Here is the input.
Amino acid sequence: MRKLLIFSMLFVLATASYGSALSVIRFGVDPSYPPFESKGPDGKLHGFDIDLGEQICARLHARCVWVENDFDGMIPALKARKFDAILSAMSNTPQRSAQIAFSDKMYNMTAGLIARKGSNLTPTPEGLKGKSIGVEQGSSALTYAKLYWEPKGAHVVSYQNQDQVYADLISGRLDAAFQAAVQAETGFLKSPQGAGYELVGKPLSDPKIFGVGAAIGIRKDDPALASKINNALAGMIKDGTYQSIERKYFNFDIYNN
Here is the structure.
């Protein structure tokens, strides 16, 4: 009887450990947005969000699975349970928080306009009248451009992903591109294809549109996952892991910028 009890206890422990080792968090991601997320020549995903996600999974004793999805379809795909959470430089805005829940803030987000050097463009309704501006579908930048610039005569063109925006900017089909300022500076302007372009004017911030910072999107019926992710994020910030990852990609404090 005693041997049977010991065997049963060991079986339960082994099963619990086995289940924990196999637990998975599926993150939705659009890998066209360096330095937050991009795909290397080897097909592997890289970036600030990717590293943060892997660290979150490690702390939760889970395995990260990255599910690629166009940014404008992230929320419908999350609701359809194609993945468990969105980790793709998504701002926590009033419009989005009406549909899904969000984790605590991961970092701040402002938007910036890039154009060819010497273009003399400005990120204002007057400065962009008659100009073609490329923006990623589903982004807060698109909401801003359509609200403030398009009614004043700017031609706002939406694209499925950021790579397509840059392709048309370089080819001359666009006068400017509008996206997260950090992404523009670090992901495009510092790359070979960004030579000859610059950030024009100051980065723009509007809490009603750009929200209160980038966060992880989670279904409202999954508060347990939200709590676990928040605990992992808090631990990373407290013990310096977040700052260590941050220094790989930025030379400034992106959490408070």
About this structure: The first strand starts at residue 24 and ends at 29. The chain has a mean pLDDT of 91. The CA atoms of residues 15 and 21 lie 10 Å apart. The chain has two domains: 24-108+212-249, 111-210.
